[in-house]
Each structure stands twice: as C-alpha cells, then as structure tokens.
Specification:
This protein is of the alpha/beta class and 236 residues long. The chain contains ten helices and seven strands. It binds S-adenosylmethionine.
Length: 236
C-alpha cells in the first residue's frame, strides 16, 4: 500500500484542464534548459517521479537510454502508459519506487510529493530516491518560486503556504538535505484569456485569484518563477 500517496488537487481532479496547464508551460524553454544544465540526461536513465498522466515523458524519450515514469494514482498511471512506448510506467510513489538500487542517473519530480513543511517531512522520499540513483546521479525537484513573477504574486495573495509550505522553510529544508537551489524565470502562455482564467481558477480554488484575474482580464500570459532544487548522490 502506498501510504505516502496524496491525490493531486489539480491534476487528480481535472485531467483535461491540467493538460492545458502543461501545454502553457515554458514556451521559451528557459526551464527546460535549466533542467538540462542541472543534470543532463542524454544517453542516460531518467525517472519522472509522480509523472501524472505522463505529459513530459515524450519530451525525454528521444534522448534518454532508459526512461521510467512512476505514479501512484491508478487513473493517471493508465494515461501515462499510453503516452509513449519508450517509457516504462510503473505503479509506485516517492517512498516506494519499484526500481533496483543505483539504476538511474537522473530523477525529476515535477510538483510531486516534495512539499516539505513543518508538518510534512519528505526525507523518506529523499532516501528512496538516493537508493535508486547511481552514485553521481541527481534528483531535480521542480518547485514554485514564491518570490518572483506573476505566479508568485498569486501565491502570496492566496493561501499558498497552507497547501504548499512556507517558502523560507522549504529553502532551508533543501539546504539541510545538501541540495542547491536555482531560480528560473519562465511563463505560462495560453492560446486564450479564457484558458488562463480556467487554469488559474483550478490552481487557486475558492476564488482566491479573483482580484488578480479581474485586474488582468485580457491576459493570455503570466510570468512564472520556478525553483530547481538539485541533490547529487555522492560518488563514494
Ligand atoms: C500536480 S501533479 C503533477 C504531475 C506531473 N509531474 C506533471 O507535471 O504533469 C502531482 C502528481 O504527484 C503524484 N503523487 C501524489 N503522491 C505522490 C507520492 N507520494 N509520490 C509520488 N507522486 C505522488 C500525483 O498523483 C500526481 O500525479
């Protein structure tokens, strides 16, 4: 039993709208280039941990030597299975990864499991990721920057710390694990203002984004700051 599984409030409830969110992410590819710089995966084995519907799996498929997706939500897992034949998609979670010791070079966790807070200790997931990483391999966690960009403004005016954890705590927690953190500025770019409205409404339920949305009603784009927390497994 996957005791650490928590159903995603966004993708877990609304698969189609989360697909639109993923479609909007990082058209300028600054995030993608920062991920490649943090831990290159060309010719290597990569695990997308908490891969959801597997949206990002095809993006890795042409350059990795082995590609895995691990996902605890059975509905999302089924969708991920159909995303690309190059990926092996497995039922599991951050604390229960169904892979051998030292078998992958890079683990990405994109808004999955790693939400450390004073009441949510994620160190069991770190230990499990370090088990499956080869010596010298890296975990890269894609997280929200709570300070920079339009999305950070939205986080500040909503109840972000309630469900995401306080920003200072998160930074210190990753430092204590031995990770380095890099800021990356990118955007969400939608094809229409209606799509932006719908996706922001999903991420900020109970109308907490309404003042921002009213002030930016024609927008199809918002700036989005990411934090990449990178933890390298020592070589000896
Ligand atoms: C916000 S969604 C992101 C999905 C995907 N990474 C993406 O960017 O499209 C969070 C994902 O984490 C998964 N998840 C929940 N609990 C988890 C756990 N303990 N370990 C790994 N993934 C988990 C959810 O089922 C969901 O697929």
């Amino acid at each position: 039993m996957l005791t650490d599984f928590v159903k995603a409030w966004n993708q877990g409830q609304n698969v189609d709208l989360y697909e639109k969110e993923n479609d909007a992410i990082d058209h300028e590819r600054t995030l993608w280039r920062a991920l490649e710089a943090a831990a290159p995966w060309e010719g290597k084995g990569l695990l997308d941990l908490g891969c959801g519907t597997g949206y990002w799996l095809p993006h890795y498929a042409s350059t990795t030597s082995r590609l895995y997706g691990v996902e605890p939500d059975m509905t999302l897992l089924e969708a991920a299975n159909n995303r690309t034949p190059q990926a092996e998609v497995l039922s599991g979670s951050a604390e229960h990864i169904p892979l051998d010791d030292s078998c992958v070079d890079v683990v990405h966790a994109r808004f999955a499991y790693f939400f450390p807070s004073p009441t949510n200790d994620c160190s069991a997931g770190v230990a499990e990721v370090l088990r499956v990483l080869r010596p010298g391999g890296s975990l890269v966690v894609i997280d929200n920057d709570q300070e920079q960009g339009d999305f950070a403004n939205l986080l500040r005016t909503s109840n972000a710390a309630d469900y995401q954890g306080p920003g200072d705590f998160i930074l210190q927690w990753w430092q204590q694990q031995g990770a380095t953190t890099r800021e990356v500025m990118s955007s969400w770019t939608f094809t229409s203002a209606e799509d932006l409205l719908e996706v922001v409404g999903m991420e900020f339920p109970q109308g907490t984004a309404q003042p921002w949305l009213r002030a930016h009603s024609e927008r199809t784009k918002l700036s989005y700051g990411y934090l990449l927390h990178t933890l390298r497994k020592p070589t000896c």
